[in-house]
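Re: the 439-residue chain
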Amino acid sequence: MPISPLSEPPYLSSLPSPYYNASHLRWQKACRAFLEEHFMPFAKDWETSETVPPHLFETFAKANMLIPNLPAPLPVEWLKKLDIHDILGTKIEDWDYIHTAIYVDEVARSGLAGPGGSVTVGMAFGVPPIIKFGSRQLQEKFLPDLLTGRKRTCIAITEPEAGSDVANITTTARKTADGRYYIVSGTKKWITNGYWSDLSAMAVRTGGPGPSGLSMLVVPLKGYPGVTMRRLKVGGQISAGTTFIELDDVKVPVENLIGDEGQGMRYIMTNFNHERLTIAIGGTRQARVALSSAFEYCMKREAFGKTLMEQPVVRNRLARAAAELESLQAWVDQFVYQMTKLKKEEADVKLGGLTALAKAKAGLVLNECAQCAVLLFGGNGYTRTGMGELVEKIYRDVPGARIPGGSEDVMFDLAVRQLVKNYQNETKSLERPKGSSKL
């Protein structure tokens, strides 16, 4: 059966690609088969009911299908220690960022960010700070349960008065007189997966104002004294469990400090790069689902005595959105490939600003493709049930790609500032030391 136009990225549309090798293609088939059985048929109903059944997380955990959310390369030493040697047949030693991108893309193939986000976000963004910056003692304490899915976590940065302005968060962590505990007080808002999480990797203020006063702690959540959580009713991605967290003198052992005091801003910014790239990858696939749905609808829907596809204005609208989509896809593919060739430290410097730019661009393209789909579906695209239900849901998901992980305008500004900084640093490195000979 032929592939519907625009429904798959080029490498899955019988077109050659320099990026995907045999291991990637085997993983894609295994990943899709798993999701077709356990996830895809139910995702839309779960988003409609606004929650995902607990067994989904358990199913993913048993199949080691939470592990692909981690940044590549995977923590091989830890995984082998936990008797995890492969993911659906792909050896963990062979895993690279293209495998990660395939996973993110396939999960987003439902068209909806909520159901997938309900099981992926905590592992993707809450566990990496412990792996990258946590002491061996901290890792021993938490990683066995987190990597196997016996416990759940989340990343807790955002506050009611400090979203993209991370440096000004106000949740405090003050040491007790005996130095054995931090007393954490404050609020966190829009925390994905928080409601179900046993733990959180949380940004707290251990020092003075500004970024140098920030640290990260592993803070217990579910059922823990002083912690109150409630779900927030957001416009899209409803089933992902967006949560408001209140922290009232929560007693946390000092051993739960991630890395060093005062280094929280650096840890958070490093973590954001993975988050922003996965948002770009998922948003690209959501845009593809929306636009390909509109394409198929226009082939069948008749108006004024002929199909919508026979109307030049319709073809023009589809073409303009498709150009944006395929340009973004090419950039994302290139970006992910670059991640497989650069060391983490080098990628953070060279690609950090561009990651913000890619995330912002993906949000714009998703908006364009989702809006195009809704308009071409007409009244059906504006209705929460029926043949336009999926594109209506995707359109409500759009702000969830443009705001979390750093809002769009902040991302554009960050991207340019980072590019300028890199240029100035490279220029400075080429300058001749003062007093040196001109010869």
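DSSP finds 13 helices and twelve strands in the chain.
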